[in-house]
């Protein structure tokens, strides 16, 4: 199979008017797949994401703004709104993650934009969606995680709800917004018509909550915080070693038997207390304690060697340091190095998912200056020079 350069979305033009994470991550996904993404930023400071992240220098912007061009427009002014309309008239997709009603207030109502450009797809990411009694409320990712059910089940039962160390609500909404845009592109290829994609933070979280709703509605069971385990799924936990921790997932019958063999306790696989999925779930704490007694006597490396040989799904708890040192990440280009004009070679996550015929790529580092691409984009898209 011959690979085609540029990615599957080569030739697609995207205007990104969002800020922070949810809208811009959607733009990153489309840009990684080959779309030309023009990010509209407010003059001066630009997107606050330029100053987000840990360490010095800040590098989060280098990831979320890659493959994008920066155009500075004041969307609160008539001139800025006119320039935005001109660019959107040439675009295939518009992304925005402002509070519902903001675009309309700026004279950029999607209905009017689509009247001028019927093929336009508008991805609207917001806390609660574009309709409903909560639509106009301010909603950040953490609020969506709470309302969608995520926060309520993360952490330990004797402690307040915890959060993940990443902005999962924002990135889920961005991902669903991207999926919606791709579906809308297919529909447009058949009908010639664009449409509006409505991606709410709380609903994006709700989509990954598995059977939480029917478990309660049908069986009256409420999921609760359970720490590092999933109730009834055993053994599947992080276990202590002499020099660290190691995750083992051996909850299927045949896999559990292989784990028992590697422990030197093959009889446990036939023990009525542990022989079935339901039995192991009922004795979850007891079984975890038994396995932990065995793993404590081994180093992480020793345990890993045993698990690989036995064919038991297991793995180390990775951090950035171990990821950068792992040959599997390098072999699959899960981490790539981008030559940043300011910060030099900058490792970051690669393009994902991987397509065999039209792979995406990181073609351009994140813009350094706010509005640095004004002239090139106005010339390329509109055949004119930006006067303001």
Measured on Cα atoms, how large is the radius of gyration? 25 Å
**Averaged pLDDT, please?**
94
Q: How many helices does DSSP assign?
A: 16
The CATH class of the largest domain turns out to be: Alpha Beta
What's the helix-strand series? EHEHEHEHHEHHEHHEEHHHHEHHEEH
Strand percent estimate: 5-15%
What is the helical fraction, as a range of percent?
25-40%
In CATH, the topology of the largest domain is named: Rossmann fold
- Global structural class: alpha/beta
How many domain modules? 2
- Ends distance: 47 Å
Give the number of DSSP strands.
11
Please tell me about this protein's structure:
This protein has 388 residues and is α/β, with parallel strands linked by helices. The chain folds into 2 domains: 13-208 and 329-382, Crotonobetainyl-coa:carnitine coa-transferase, domain 1 (Rossmann fold, 3-Layer(aba) Sandwich), CATH 3.40.50.10540; 236-322, formyl-coa transferase, domain 3. Helix content is 37%, strand content 15%. It contains 16 helices and 11 strands. The chain has a 6-stranded parallel sheet, sandwiched between helices. A 3-stranded antiparallel sheet has the order 7-8-9. A two-stranded antiparallel ribbon has the order 10-11. β2 (36-41), α2 and β3 (68-72) form a beta-alpha-beta unit. The chain starts with 12 loop residues before the first strand and ends in a 6-residue tail after the last helix.
Labels describing this entry:
388 residues; 15% strand; 37% helix; 3-stranded antiparallel β-sheet; formyl-coa transferase, domain 3; 2 domains; alpha/beta; Rossmann fold; 6-stranded parallel β-sheet
């Amino acid at each position: 199979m011959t690979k085609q350069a540029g990615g599957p979305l080569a030739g697609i033009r995207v205007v990104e008017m969002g800020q922070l994470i949810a809208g811009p991550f959607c733009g990153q996904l489309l840009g990684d797949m080959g779309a030309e993404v023009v990010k509209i930023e407010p003059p001066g400071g630009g997107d606050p994401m330029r100053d987000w992240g840990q360490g010095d220098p800040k590098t989060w912007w280098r990831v979320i703004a890659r493959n994008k061009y920066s155009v500075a427009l004041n969307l609160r002014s008539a001139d800025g709104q006119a320039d935005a309309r001109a660019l959107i008239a040439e675009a295939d997709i518009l992304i925005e993650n402002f509070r519902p009603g903001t675009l309309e207030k700026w004279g950029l109502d999607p209905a009017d934009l689509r009247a001028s450009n019927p093929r336009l797809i508008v991805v609207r990411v917001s806390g609660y969606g574009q309709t409903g009694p909560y639509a106009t409320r301010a909603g950040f990712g953490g609020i969506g995680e709470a309302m969608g059910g995520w926060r309520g089940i993360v952490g330990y039962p004797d402690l307040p709800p915890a959060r993940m160390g990443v902005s999962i609500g924002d990135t889920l909404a961005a991902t669903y917004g991207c999926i919606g845009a791709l579906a809308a592109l297919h529909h447009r290829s058949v009908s010639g018509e664009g449409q509006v994609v409505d991606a709410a933070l709380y609903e994006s979280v709700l989509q990954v909550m598995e059977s939480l709703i029917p478990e309660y509605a049908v069986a009256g069971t409420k999921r609760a915080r359970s720490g590092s385990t999933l109730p009834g799924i055993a053994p599947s936990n992080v276990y202590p070693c002499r020099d660290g921790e190691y995750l083992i997932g051996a909850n299927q019958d045949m896999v559990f038997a292989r784990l028992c063999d590697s422990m030197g306790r093959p009889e446990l696989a036939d023990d009525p207390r542990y022989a079935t999925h339901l039995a192991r779930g009922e004795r979850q704490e007891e079984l975890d304690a038994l396995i932990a007694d065995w793993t404590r006597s081994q180093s992480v490396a020793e345990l890993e060697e045993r698990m690989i040989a036995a064919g038991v799904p297991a793995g180390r708890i990775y951090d950035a340091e171990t990821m950068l040192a792992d040959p599997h990440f390098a072999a699959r280009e899960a981490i790539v190095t981008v030559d940043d004009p300011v910060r030099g070679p900058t490792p970051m996550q690669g393009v994902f998912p991987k397509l065999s015929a039209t792979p995406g790529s990181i073609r351009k580092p994140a813009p350094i200056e706010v509005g640095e691409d004004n002239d090139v984009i106005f010339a390329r898209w509109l055949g004119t020079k930006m006067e303001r």
